[in-house]
Amino acid sequence: MKLHTIGVIATLALGILLAPLASEAQQAWKVRRIGYLWSGHGPGSRSQYLLDAFQQGLRDLGWVEGQTLVIEWRFARGRTELLPDLAAELVRLGVEVLVTGAGEPVVRVLKEATSTIPIVMAVSAAPVETGLVASLGRPGGNVTGLSL
Asked: For a FRET experiment, which of 7, 20, 37, 82 has its CA 20 to 30 Å from that of 75?
């Protein structure tokens, strides 16, 4: 599966979570806040196209950074020891949903940081086996996303 496709799928999952907020936003306009945690490097890195695909997917759904939403970007730049602090910072900021394009280690850190904020993972090879979700049919908890 192409990584661009993974970005689109993650954006669609996020769209499903944000859809109820869109109707609420029509009643009382409010900028929404998304937390995005990535274990790698940020803008300008080899993964820039994934960040671009994520933003384009949001725009396709009517969510525009700086207008209808704020994305709190956090990048560990390959230093996994930074992930818990970055996740805790996103939770403290009061984001409404957490997103990651990275795999199980980042999702696990996010899951340990909160049990109430929805977490959207782009892909997981074995979410049940790694304990991220209870089952594919009924994941339970606050983690959702794509499983290969």
From this structure: 20
